[in-house]
Amino acid sequence: MPSTDIRDAHANDTHRLADWAVAMAWETEQKKLDPDTVRRGIRAVFDEPGRGRYFVAERNGQAAGTLMITYEWSDWRNGDWWWIQSVYVAPEHRRQGVYAALYAHVKKLAQARPDVCGLRLYVEHHNANAQRTYESLGMADAGYRMYEAALRRG
C-alpha cells in the first residue's frame, strides 16, 4: 500500500479544495454549495491564516484528501480547541488510511503546542461510517448537540 504524505495546502490548491468541499457537502448533507463562494471562503483562510489552516494528503504524489483546522478559544482551559473541518477523501482513496494520516498529523502538531487543549469535530447524526472512523482513532462523543442561527445564505 502506498504511503500517505501530509503537507500544508497552498493557495494554488484552492480549486481542488473547493471542488472537494462542494462534493463533501453534497455527499454528506445533500447541500448544493456555490463553488465561487466556497473558493472565496478558502482563499480567505490563505489570506488570513488566523482563520485556519488546510492540509492535503498525497499518495504517490496524487492529492488524495484534505482537512482544515479552525481555532476556538476556551476560557475554561486557557487554550485553543482545534476544530477539524472540511474533511474530504477522494473516492478512489477511501478506506486506505488517508483520513487517519491527516488526523495523526494534526494531532501531533497539536500535542507539540502547549496552547492547544484538544481536537474537536462535528459529524452528522446519520453518518455512522465517519463516527466509527473517529472512534477508532480515539475520539469520543462529547455529548453536545449543535444549534445554529444562520445569518446569511451559504
UniProtKB/TrEMBL annotation:
Domain N-acetyltransferase: from-to ranges: 4-154
UniProt-listed SUPFAM superfamilies: Acyl-CoA N-acyltransferases (Nat)
InterPro entries documented for this protein: Acyl_CoA_acyltransferase, Bact_Acetyltransf, GNAT_dom
Pfam families for this protein: Acetyltransf_1
Keyword Transferase: yes
Keyword Glycosyltransferase annotated: no
MF (Gene Ontology): acyltransferase activity, transferring groups other than amino-acyl groups
Transmembrane feature ranges: none
Keywords: Acyltransferase, Transferase
Protein name: GNAT family N-acetyltransferase
